[in-house]
């Protein structure tokens, strides 16, 4: 069995946690793409039905608020991994 | 949701409910004397409130654009918001006077309230329709 010295083991763990933090941050990209797509569709929906503008804005706002939370989850995990808070 | 046609009213209602729900952790941390939790929570909550306002302004701006440019605009603004969230969480993690988890919960409070509100609305509609059927 291979045994690592404590310094090597610590370096490996730190490196792995940095890589994991970087991977966690990728989760923040998805909501951005989705929100942009929703905004584009909402714009064309308002063009088609101007009288529904208020409800479209409300729905979009609530949708964006909820979908943004996955990004914060990923940030929390990434910061946990980097700083070990 | 009664005021779905008035986004300003919905926004104010969400904020009111968020502050109402936030009173519980604020008062309990105050009574327990955990000031770092209190400051962290208020820090997260204030930033979440400001970012909700920013999001609303961005949506209003995006609706006056073409579809492609609105898509790009909202995407770019989301990444700016993401960087702001990172800055908030980073400063909460590095500052000894702010609790990191409390700041994260403060950032999430608006989202929790929106989800809770949707669930309550759904349950109310379901029970109302069942009740109407029974009548």
From TrEMBL, chain A:
It is a multi-pass membrane protein. Its main location: membrane. It comes from the Bacteria. GO terms for molecular function: lipid binding; proton transmembrane transporter activity. Keywords: ATP synthesis, CF(0), Hydrogen ion transport, Ion transport, Lipid-binding, Membrane, Transmembrane, Transmembrane helix, Transport. The lineage of its organism: Bacteria, Bacillati, Bacillota, Clostridia, Halanaerobiales. The keyword Transit peptide does not apply. Signal peptide: none annotated. InterPro entries: ATP_synth_csu_bac/chlpt, ATP_synth_F0_csu, ATPase_proteolipid_c-like_dom, F/V-ATP_Csub_sf. It comes from Halanaerobium saccharolyticum. The keyword Ribosomal protein does not apply. The chain crosses the membrane at residues 16-40, 61-83. This is ATP synthase F(0) sector subunit c. It is found in: Membrane. Residues 19-81 form the V-ATPase proteolipid subunit C-like domain. Belongs to the ATPase C chain family.
TrEMBL record, chain B:
Keywords: Cell membrane, Membrane, Transmembrane, Transmembrane helix. It holds the Pfam family ATP-synt_I. The keyword Transmembrane helix applies. The chain crosses the membrane at residues 12-31, 37-56, 77-94, 100-120. It is found in: Cell membrane. The keyword Kinase does not apply. GO terms for cellular component: plasma membrane. It is a multi-pass membrane protein. Its main location: membrane. It comes from the Bacteria. This is ATP synthase I subunit.
């Amino acid at each position: 069995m291979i045994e690592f010295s404590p310094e090597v083991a610590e370096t490996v763990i730190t490196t792995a946690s940095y890589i994991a933090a970087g991977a966690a941050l990728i989760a923040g990209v998805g909501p951005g793409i989705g929100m942009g797509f929703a905004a584009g569709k909402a714009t064309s929906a308002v063009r088609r039905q101007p009288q529904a503008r208020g409800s479209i804005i409300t729905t979009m706002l609530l949708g964006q608020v909820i979908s943004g939370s996955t990004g914060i989850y990923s940030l929390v995990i990434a910061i946990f991994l980097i700083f070990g808070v | 949701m009664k005021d779905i046609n008035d986004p300003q009213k919905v926004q104010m209602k969400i904020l009111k409910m968020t502050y109402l729900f936030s009173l519980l952790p604020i008062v309990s941390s105050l009574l327990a004397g955990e000031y770092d939790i209190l400051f962290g929570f208020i820090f997260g909550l204030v930033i979440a409130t400001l970012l909700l306002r920013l999001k609303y302004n961005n949506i209003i701006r995006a609706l006056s654009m073409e579809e492609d440019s609105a898509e790009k605009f909202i995407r770019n603004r989301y990444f700016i918001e993401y960087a702001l969230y990172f800055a908030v969480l980073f400063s909460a993690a590095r500052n000894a006077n702010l609790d990191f988890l409390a700041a994260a919960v403060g950032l999430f409070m608006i989202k929790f309230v929106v989800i809770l509100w949707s669930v309550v609305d759904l349950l109310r509609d379901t029970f109302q329709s069942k009740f109407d059927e029974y009548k």
